[in-house]
Amino acid sequence: MIKILLASGNAKKLSELRAILDAYSLPVQVLSPADLELNPDDLRDSENKPISLEETGSTFAENALIKAMGFFRACGIPCISDDSGICVDALNGEPGVYSARYGGPGLDDGQRNQLLLKNLEPYPEPEQRKAHFACVLCLVGYPGQAPLYFEGRVDGYIGLSSSGDGGFGYDPVFIENSTGEYFATMSPDRKAALSHRGKALKALAAYLQRNLH
Predict the structure, then answer these.
(1) What is the DSSP annotation of the chain?
(2) pLDDT (tens digit, 9 = 90+) per residue, 123-170?
(3) What CATH number has the domain bearing residue 102?
(4) What residues contact residue 169 under an 8 Å CB cut-off, 6+ apart?
(5) 148 with 121: CB under 8 angstroms?
(6) pLDDT digits (tens, 9 = 90+) for 103-134
């Protein structure tokens, strides 16, 4: 049984990763920072030097690496981190890597969604509101490997209003192309089958399936 740390305190992400790895029947135990009594705000390396997790990267891959490498330095077991966000064509790819910080500090998910809808008011047609969710997973510390990356993407567009109370982040305003449904109205299993994060997690699971001995 190999142990892997998910470098996130998000319970929904942890549940999603565990479910996908279970579906592949992989001998992997996924741990959370709390399981190892790691405080993301006070990580220290083996020499007791502080570790910063500040997302200073300009790409999803760079930010995922910062988080995964930081936790790996703190605990010494393989670590997975993801960075993801929503990219809107009409806004030149924004919010992108700033999705979680869109509009500045202090806003919650609902307020960020409302800001996005407001900024898209000049673009009322679905074709003008094209968007995609992107996710990059980074695995650090896997034996014998440099950092590994796994990507997922799902295309759609931003609705004229929000709908549904499932999921998190921008799920209430994102309409997935193949179904015409808001992510926030889908069941967790249905969303995971379509989502950017689900696709990246499945790519990770497929890699582990091929390489675990």
Answers:
(1) -EEEEES---HHHHHHHHHHHHHTT--EEEE-GGGGT--GGGEE-TT--EE------SSHHHHHHHHHHHHHHHH-S-EEEEEEEEEEGGGTT-BGGGGGGTTSTT--HHHHHHHHHHHTTT--SGGGGEEEEEEEEEEE--TT---EEEEEEEEEEE-SS---S-SSTTGGGEEETTT--BGGGS-HHHHHHHSHHHHHHHHHHHHHHHH--
(2) 999 999 999 999 999 999 988 889 999 999 999 999 999 999 888 899
(3) 3.90.950.10
(4) 86, 99, 100, 109
(5) no
(6) 998 999 999 999 999 999 999 999 999 999 99
Which residues in 31-53 are b (16+ Cβ under 10 Å) and which e?
bbbeeeebebeebeeeeeeebeb
User: Model pTM?
Assistant: 0.90
- Concerning whether 83 is annotated as a catalytic residue, the answer is yes
Distance CA 114, CA 1 (A): 45
**C-alpha span between 135 and 132 (Å, rounded):** 10
Look up the domain containing 67 and give its range.
Answer: 2-211
CA nearest to 7, candidates 85, 46, 65, 84: 65
Selecting among 41, 83, 155, 165, the annotated active-site residue is 83
The count of structural domains within the chain is 1
